[in-house]
Amino acid sequence: MANDVLHELAQVLESRKSAPAESSYVAGLYAKGLDAILKKVGEEATETVMAAKDGVPEKLVYEVADLWFHTLVLLAHQGLAPDDVLAELARRMGLSGLEEKARRGQGA
Ligand SMILES: N=c1c2ncn([C@@H]3O[C@H](COP(=O)(O)OP(=O)(O)OP(=O)(O)O)[C@@H](O)[C@H]3O)c2ncn1[C@@H]1O[C@H](COP(=O)(O)O)[C@@H](O)[C@H]1O
């Protein structure tokens, strides 16, 4: 289910690249450019931290959804897709703990 949602949303985000800026929220964000998208990612990250501190699970889920959404917009803007991140996570799952530490430059 998770992948279906991500892929469907990614398709919508791609389609917004050819939509007029005033026609939708995502098209408007693309038109404002990278800095505007990064600003939203930063805001949503902060709101996620605040929601976690509040300790209300529903609020946290809502804010993480906003954060994921805006990171997906960022990926699309940069010519990337959810599959690129999922492949990286899958690759990491295939690494042993030691290999993972070495990869991050924390090896013995
Ligand atoms: N999942 C989302 C989604 N999540 C959050 N948002 C928008 O992200 C913004 C969140 O920003 P804030 O919480 O800061 O609220 P805000 O103050 O209203 O935001 P700003 O206007 O200041 O940017 C809101 O405007 C939300 O509507 C989303 N907008 C769109 N989608 C999906 O993207 C698709 C394409 O959207 P459109 O381009 O609008 O058609 C939609 O069909 C949805 O599936």
UniProtKB/TrEMBL annotation:
Family matches, as Pfam families: PRA-PH
Keyword ATP-binding (UniProt): yes
GO biological process: L-histidine biosynthetic process
EC top class named in words: hydrolase
EC number from the UniProt entry: 3.6.1.31
Pathway recorded for this protein: Amino-acid biosynthesis; L-histidine biosynthesis; L-histidine from 5-phospho-alpha-D-ribose 1-diphosphate: step 2/9
Similarity remark: Belongs to the PRA-PH family.
PANTHER family, A to Z: HISTIDINE BIOSYNTHESIS BIFUNCTIONAL PROTEIN, HISTIDINE BIOSYNTHESIS BIFUNCTIONAL PROTEIN HISIE
Name this polypeptide is given: Phosphoribosyl-ATP pyrophosphatase
Classification of source organism: Bacteria, Pseudomonadati, Pseudomonadota, Gammaproteobacteria, Chromatiales
Gene name tied to this protein: hisE
